[in-house]
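Below is the data:
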Amino acid sequence: MDKIDELLTRGVEEIIDKKDLETVLRSKKKLRIKLGIDPTSPNIHIGRATLLLKLREFQELGHTAIFIVGDFTGLVGDTSDKDSERPMLTESLVKKNMRGYFDQAYKILDKKKTEVHYNSKWLKKLGFIELAKMANLFGLHEFESREVIARRMQAGGRVSFTELLYPLMQGYDSVAVRADVELGGTDQRFNLLTGRRLQMLYNQKPQNILMMGILEGTDGRKMSSSWGNVINIADEPNDMFGKVMSINDGLIKKYFVLATRVPIEEIERVISANANPRDQKLVLAEGITRLYHGEKKAAEAKLAFINQFSKGDLPEKMPAKKITAGNHDLIELLVGTGLVSSKSEARRLVEQNGVKVNQEPCKEKVLKKIEGQDLVLQVGKRKFIRLY
């Protein structure tokens, strides 16, 4: 498999127009490859990073990587994959979220070969006439036909006008940067195709589209910051390693293909040589951690994981909280220390033996703290806090 073949197949679900894109790539013409990410949270997770990895592949073939931070589209938020309306964000929150976006992206992209933009630069200038010209290309039935929108409407859910405008905003980004190719997930198909139609309106050649598969998170659903099932680029090595080890066994190969740069031949060798999924995940977790933190820290994270979970050791470092001696409501304590997000989650974990005190399952409603005694409160396999 040559580099172009791998570029067009690894983790790729659909290409429009594949024949044209392959022909242009083999002609060695330099292309402008666009990827936009909205700063709807402070972190880029590895589900989004699959597209950054693909953009890096284009970079290495000599093409121009165009990275757009959607400081304007982020205010609205894309609802392509959402079962409910996404609330609009404030400008101050979007600015706060995107402070570290480029630093995170440059863990993958070659900074010197990346063209960067904020889409507020051109979207803020659009007037009603321009919007009307673009909107006139589309009928309401086209928007309604999208699966997630149709499902919401059938259930009587609200669909806002801003959601209708979002594809136009993303599509106009392609016009503004004169994109030859746009990268995106399969859930963005409508938005990506909108870019092609708008480019034709503005007498540009329609961009080719490369759509990647969607990476599931630690709970088996699509990886999403709003669900908290993410592995973030900025996660500490030990935390990153542990999260990868917690994924469903059925996702191991998909994670190798989408979230690492391990060659396909090596992936097949690792999977065939290690019958135990745990051993496969050790290689996977080390590969992902190495990608963002380097060889040494990845090896240290692997050793720490083996010591902690294979030998039953407690981590050397963990958060600590001072509490008074006496009786404490366990559910309140779990929520108050941040180990869980809600009382209902705390109750469920307690019932399922997912809460431990000093490494022993705890189902008591009241936790007794004795003066001078330290207690280690644990939720699941990776969350600890020392109570002193």
Q: What stands out?
A: The radius of gyration is 24 Å. The chain has a mean pLDDT of 90. The chain has three domains: 3-212, 237-310, 320-387. The longest strand covers residues 32-37.
